[in-house]
Every structure is written in C-alpha cells, then in structure tokens.
TrEMBL record:
Membrane-spanning parts: 22-44, 50-71, 100-122, 134-155, 162-182, 194-218, 238-258, 293-318, 339-361, 373-397, 409-428, 440-459
Region annotated Disordered, chain positions: 462-491
Biased composition range(s): Basic and acidic residues: 462-481
Protein name listed in UniProt: APC family permease
Organism of derivation: Gordonia asplenii
Main localization (coarse): membrane
PANTHER family: AMINO ACID PERMEASE, AMINO ACID TRANSPORTER-RELATED
Pfam short name (any one): AA_permease_2
Length: 491
C-alpha cells in the first residue's frame, strides 16, 4: 500500500494500468457487439451497402494520421484533460476553454445515448429471458446502481469488468466470421467491397459518419496517462493497438455480414429488417441458440460501453474542475480508492435528468434519446479530434519541435483535412442518423458551438490567473502530488 498522501483532488498515480488495461477500456467503450447490431446494419441499409468495409478503411486511415501526432503530443503532455489540454497548449487559453465545453457536451451526450440503447435492449432481452414484461425504467435503475458501485473503486476494477464483457462479445463475433468463411470459402468474400465505385458511391457520407461513430472512444487512451504504470510507453502502444484492432475487426465483421447475404443482396436485406440484420445472419450460420446468446451480449456490450464512457466523461469533469471551468467540488477525490466520486456522481445525475425528461415526454429511450444523443456525441468528438489535430500542428510549429516533421506536423495536418470533410458530411446527414423529423432534435448540433462560446468566455475571465502548462516540469504530471486521471466518484 502506498504511503503517499493524496490531496483532495488527486487521483491515484501509477495505479498499475498496463497497455492491456487501457486497450480494454477503449475497446469496451467502442462496444463491438452494440456497433455490429445497431450501427453496422444502419450503415449497410442507408449508406453504401457493399462498400461499408471500405468506409471503415477510410475512417481508420484518417484516424491513423491523427494518432501519429496525438502520440507525439501525449508523450509531452500526460494529463487527464485530453483534447482540452492539447488545445490549451497548442492554441491558447480561450481555445482550450472552448474545447473543454465541447468535450463536456460531446462525452455526456454520447454517454446518455449509449444509456438509451442499453435500457431499451436490456428491457427487451430481460423480458424474453424471464417471460414477463420488464419495464425499461427498472433496467435503468439497476444499471445506474451497478455503474455507481464499479466507479467508486479504483479504475483497475472497472478495467477487469470491461475485459470480461469485451472478450465474450468479440469471441462470438469472430465465431460468426469463421462460420461464414467455412460455409462460403474465401471466394465468398468478394473484393468488390473495396472497389472505389462501391466505397465512394451513393451514401458514402452516411457510411463514413457511422464508421467514425464506430471508432468513438479510441482516443481515450491519453486520459489514462496519469494512472498508467509507464505512460510514455503504455499510451502510444495502446493508441496504435486499439486503432489497429478496431479497424481490422470492423472491416472483417462488415465484410462477413455482407458476404453472408451476398454482395448484391446485403443492402436490400438490411433495409428490409435493419434491427435483425445481424441476428438473421447469425441464426442462418450459427443457429438460434447462438443468436440468443448474441442478444444477451448486446446488452453486456452496451453496459460496458456505458461504464467506459462514464469514466471518460468524469475525467473531463475532474480536469475542468481543477482549472476552474466547472465547480471546484467536482475535483474532489476519494481518499481511500483515489476515485473521483463527485465527478462520477455528477455525470450520473446528467444521465438521470435526461432519461427522466425523455421518459416523462413519452419518447422512446433508444429510437429518440439514444440515437439523437449518440449522434450529437459522435459529431462533437470528431470536432474535438479536428481541434486536437490543429492544436498539435500549432504546438510543434510554435515551439519549433520538429524532430519528426512527418509525425508531428504533416500527418496531423492531413488528418485535419480528413476531419473537415467528415464533419461536413456528418452535419449534412445528421437528420438521417437520428431518423427524426422533429426540429429540435435535429437542431441538437447547435449545442456544440454554443458550448464552445461559453467555454471561451469562461476561459477569458481567468486571464489574471497564471496558466499552468501541462509540459512545464513543475506541472501536475511530474509533481509528487500530481492530480490523476481516473474519474471514479469521490467522497
């Protein structure tokens, strides 16, 4: 047991998170089973159809360019603030404040959206298992209590829970891939899915948007830097490994799903029965029993994603509270488990407020709240990635740190271009993502510029305070009392 005394806003440094632990957090947050059942089917139905695997390759390539500079920056800045810290270091205090508030909106929105899907599918699967109607509010209460308990303890406890859930869903999806391959053979996997005409055909904007949505959360590796056993090695490794695994995984599973129906028939099948597109293929190739198991794993996948996004969001609460952009009490840390109880509790309150609000309004927890808020979260996180890429270029140019021009300047600059194109397509297709004709739901993206303005104003009011540089030797990163990054609830 460490004898180091912790300050009221200090997370436990060096909790022992390894590269594998960080990767588990990231991959669980990506929610493989949830993505395959919900997002992949929609992408095939409303996007490019057979060209969806190629869209994943494009998204992965843009994020790989971003990651090159992201890793360079994370080696110089180990801080819970993530994108917020990068923006402040690269573009200044006001840009940092604007980025901070966009992050708060984006991560909270994504967390609420995932929760909407979790309670809906949880209710549906529980009703099937027990043969009696299980209302989704009851599922919501159980899930909230479970996450509150897990987030109270050290971050490593949550990492192990995520690892178990992740392993189960990945194994069953790999079994599906193998079943399709055994039945059809290699010739059944047509290379047409990577042909430019298929990838960049009609609906490419929707498929690219949903592909980026499938990657959301991979960038969270830097948020665990202060708690990692060896952040300068663990964070870069976890970032590259997470991105590579996610890209290959979704390319293969989307290719297998399309091949299961046939390149020329997959889109039509997805349009005819989007909700059961994967389940129908699973029943055909693996049998009903495996499909039933898959349905259960959809729920565990979404729960793991909810837990992971909850932890990531709370980290931003801690970082902003430390810097005066959110109420200071949110930075308080539990003295025993070094977990940010206050920040975690505040995030759960946000989830509860929106869930109750949508419920009272008679809105569907998944089709209304889930999709619209997750869409807002995806859009906001891509905005954050674009800002971070711009900040990285500015930081290395301003400080004349050009030891590696390709990875620190050229790669992130190219990523900025890719993100800009993606954002235009995402905003244009946001109503398609929500599937709603309600004006206020399709106007939710306006919350992002409003949050940015608010953050810039709040940051400007702090001009009289000395700005603490995350790269300064005296910063939290190197201080023996360095505040740490895991937002679990604090006392």
């Amino acid at each position: 047991m460490s004898t180091t005394q912790s300050s009221p806003d200090e997370l436990k440094s060096g909790t022992g998170l390894t590269t594998a632990d960080i990767v588990f957090f990231v991959l669980a947050g990506v929610a493989p089973m949830g993505v395959v059942v919900a997002i992949l089917a929609v992408s095939i139905a409303r996007g490019t159809g057979a060209g969806v695997p190629g869209a994943y390759v494009v998204a992965g390539a843009i994020l790989a360019l971003f990651s090159a500079g992201y890793i360079k920056m994370s080696r110089r800045i180990t801080n819970v603030g993530g994108f917020y810290t990068f923006a402040q270091e690269g573009l200044g205090r006001r840009a940092g404040g604007a980025t901070a508030m966009v992050a708060v909106v984006a991560y909270n929105a994504a967390t609420v959206g995932i929760f909407g899907g979790l309670v809906y599918y949880g209710s549906d699967v529980a009703s099937q298992l027990f043969g009696v109607s299980v209302p989704w509010p009851a599922v919501a209460v159980v899930c909230l209590i479970a996450v509150a308990v897990l987030s109270y303890f050290e971050v490593t406890a949550s990492a192990k829970v995520l690892a178990v859930a992740l392993a189960a869903e990945v194994l069953i999806l790999l079994a599906f891939n193998v079943a399709v391959l055994v039945r059809l053979g290699f010739h059944g996997f047509s290379m047409h899915v990577f042909a430019p005409a298929a990838v960049f055909g009609g609906g490419f904007g929707i498929s690219l948007m949903l592909a980026f949505g499938s990657f959301v959360g991979f960038e969270a590796t830097s948020l665990y830097g202060e708690e990692a056993r060896d952040p300068r090695r663990s964070v870069p490794r976890a970032t590259y490994l997470s991105l590579a695994v996610i890209t290959v995984f979704y390319v293969l599973i989307s290719w297998a799903a399309i091949s299961a129906y046939g390149v020329g028939k997959a889109q039509q099948a997805a349009q005819a029965d989007t909700e059961n597109f994967i389940f129908n293929a699973s029943t055909q190739y693996l049998g009903k029993a495996v499909t039933d198991m898959m349905a259960i794993l959809v729920v565990t996948s979404l729960f793991a994603a909810f837990l992971a996004f909850h932890c990531n969001t709370a980290r931003y609460h801690v970082a902003l509270a430390r810097d005066g952009l959110l109420p200071r009490f949110l930075a308080r840390i539990n003295s025993r488990h070094h977990s940010p109880v206050a920040a975690s509790a505040a995030q759960l309150v946000v989830v509860i407020v929106f869930t109750v609000g949508f419920g009272v309004a008679g809105q569907h927890p998944y089709l209304s709240m889930g999709i619209s808020f997750y869409g807002l979260g995806v859009l906001g996180i891509v905005v954050l990635q674009a800002i971070a890429a711009t900040s990285i270029v500015a930081y290395f140019l301003r400080n004349r740190l050009t030891e590696s021009v390709v990875t620190s300047i050229v790669a992130p600059a190219l990523a900025v271009v890719g993100f800009a194109v993606a954002l235009v397509l995402m905003v244009a297709n946001y109503p398609t993502l929500t599937g709603s004709t309600v004006t206020w739901i399709n106007s939710l993206p306006w919350a992002l510029p409003v949050a940015a303005v608010l953050g810039a104003v709040l940051a400007g009011r702090r001009r009289g305070e000395p700005a603490e540089s995350a790269t300064d030797p005296r910063s939290r990163r190197d201080s023996p009392r360095a505040p740490e990054t895991c937002p679990t609830p604090s006392r």
